[in-house]
Write a structure and sequence with these properties.
The protein has 249 residues and is an alpha/beta fold. The chain contains eight helices and twelve strands. The chain has a single domain, classed as P-loop containing nucleotide triphosphate hydrolases (Rossmann fold, 3-Layer(aba) Sandwich). A hairpin with a 2-residue loop joins strand 9 and strand 10.
Length: 249
Amino acid sequence: MIEIQNIGFSYGKTRVLSDVSLKAKAGECVAILGNNGAGKSTLITCVNRIRQPKKGEVLIDGRPVRRMGRRELAQNVAYVAQKNEMSQTTVFDCVLLGRRPYMKWGASGEDIEKCLAMLRRVGMEEFQLRSLDEMSGGELQKVMLARALVQEPKVLLLDEPTSSLDPKNQYEMMALVRELAHERQITVLVVIHDLNLAIRYCDRFFFLKNGKGYCYGDSQAVTDDVIRDVYGICGHIAKIDGKKVVVIG
């Protein structure tokens, strides 16, 4: 379980988050939703201490994140940024970096096998000797997801993982994230803008508005009123082939 308790964060005098709280269980995929500037990315980077909250606490299985050393934190929390820098590093070496929190003197046979297994799982095994700068946006996101997952985290943080992907790769990415979250009992916090992707692949939904938690719950929390109040647009919840969808306008 992850528990975020009354997190507050400011950039100088500009308050970005104010008393934000949520709880999520192992295996749950939680969508972090809201307009640009609502504090979504700031919130998840407070979880892994990229940013230090001005107040509040983050607990993983009851243990405060602020008390964890770097190695322990990396064994508990993995993060995939919205944008990742290209380099001439090979795909395999990039994924192997995810095993660093467990290495002592070098990569073991177990580390190598886990990397190969994860590359197979995300469909990137045949690209393992290619350079990252030869990857498409969708391929690179899969590589970064593989690197995060070989950390064997309890919590996986994803910042707009589908923002640069075509529709096919968007659905493949989110389906894979949900499958692995449920299978490995990883708690996933995913910042996402596409409400329909969120509804289809996430278990719970946390809406931020002006840096504060607006509402949180299962798919019943996604309503016409919430969409109007949070996003300032007219949206209608409908069902198509038995699946809940958001129709804008």
